[in-house]
Amino acid sequence: MGNSRYERDRPVSGTEAAEARALHAVAELLTERPAISVDRSMASEIAEVLHAAAIELDGGRPVPLALRRAVRGLANALRSAVDPRDHSASSGPSVS
Fold this sequence. Notes:
Layout: H1 14-32, H2 40-58, H3 65-82
């Protein structure tokens, strides 16, 4: 095991894998249905942040807790804004 966080080999928990999938889903919703009032460039950059966090989690690499909470909050707020489904019937790909 190396000292770099990228050299560490640890298994991905089911929770982290589910969180990564949810982050990717929200990022895809943002790029496919830009229903929030940001330009295309900003939506793309926000989606990149979500994808990057998801890739780190899915790769078994830890994401600092404060950053992970911020990304979760961003993803949940975006999902609420861009998810076309009725939120009273389904919570969608919530990130917890």
